[in-house]
Amino acid sequence: MNKDEQLAKQYFQEGDQFTLFMTPTVAQKMRSGVVDDIMTREITSQAVDFESEEITDAAEAVTSKIMLSYEGIEITGKVQLTPFDREVIDAVATLSLNNEYVTSSTIYRVMSGKTKGEYVGPKQKARVIESMDKCAFSKLTIRLPEAFVETHNDEIRRLDGVYSGQLLAFEKVTANSSKGLIDVYKLLAVPALFRYAQSMGKISEFPITMLDTPPAKTERTILLQGYLLRRIDAINRKEEPLSKIMWRDVYEALSMSDAVRQHQKRVRETAREILDYWQKYEFFHSYRMDNKSNGGILVTPNYDFQG
After folding, report:
1. For 160, left (φ over 0), alpha (ψ -120 to 50), or beta?
2. Closest by Cα among 62, 63, 65 to 46
3. What totals of helices (H) and strands (E) does the chain contain, helices first?
4. What is the mean pLDDT of the chain?
5. Per-residue pLDDT, 178
């Protein structure tokens, strides 16, 4: 019995709540205009070429192409990439630093900052599995401007400024057991998007415990704290002209622009819990909330924040 078969057998016997993984102490997050653009796209079997507003020292734009494709197999239909898929890719990239094998439970734990093998329910696992499958069938190519490639680091020049592959590359084993659906993923490569962001110096690191905020880790909470984390990180890095995060942008990021007032109020309350928790990490010096219709979160940045 080889290593893969032994691991799969152990999971079928133990259930995928059992963990053999090295728990990360740091969560890695991509920050990039290219990533922002790609992870909101609807993709089909027809390749779509587009340019992204990534800041480089070349006059030309970064060009990307994405389509539904898997090892030459023709795939019909369309899928929508979402902020949840982005969180999954970040979690897989974080785990891949020290793990060859992962499960839907370990991925969800990293997304929510859990580090002690906490229970993950079937609904949460199913959402991760759905996202993993979607990313496996999404083929990406990113191409940097030639003028930029010629003047930058060895890694960028070695690749000719081209990053390509599935959004996530893995081998999957699944089976039904007395403990439900068991899934084990053998990671085959660091995600192409992550490799691009890494070579461009567009990866931010945070203590994994920063993601273990007090609110219940629903999908909405994970997306909200991921959005706030990236926005405040950008403010700290002086990559945003203003230090205010507008509520309308938060609602749009959560697909809640047309939600009833009570649901939007709950988002604001959850945001307050998250921000209060982050203050002990000195992620920012202070914040103030304005809950008017055109209001938002005014952040006093901490330019010296070290994750």
Report:
1. left
2. 65
3. 11, 14
4. 86
5. 60
| pLDDT tier, 241 (very low <50, low <70, confident <90, very high otherwise) | confident
Whether residue 14 has pLDDT greater than 50: no
Please say whether the dihedral angle defined by the alpha carbons of residues 256, 259, 263 and 266, taken in this order, is positive or negative.
positive
* Lowest pLDDT segment from 8-22, 31-45, 62-76, 112-126: 8-22
pLDDT number for residue 307: 65
Distance CA 184, CA 191 (A): 17
Residue 167 CA to residue 92 CA, distance in Å, equals 11
Q: How confident is the model at residue 250, as a pLDDT?
A: 96
- What is the separation, in whole angstroms, between the first and last Cα of the chain? 42
Rounded Cα distance, 123 and 169, in Å: 23
- Which tokens in the block code for residue 153? 């680091």
| Three-class secondary structure of residue 135 per DSSP | helix
Rounded to whole angstroms, the Cα distance separating 233 from 224 reads 14
Dist. CA 179–CA 194, nearest whole Å: 33
CATH topology for 213-301 is Ribosomal Protein S8; Chain: A, domain 1 (3.30.1370)
**Tokens representing 113?**
């900052």
Whether 209 contacts 124, CB under 8 Å: no
3-state SS class at 114: coil
Domain ranges of the chain: 1-208, 213-301
Which carries the bigger pLDDT value, residue 176 or residue 97?
A: 97
pLDDT greater than 60 at residue 128: yes
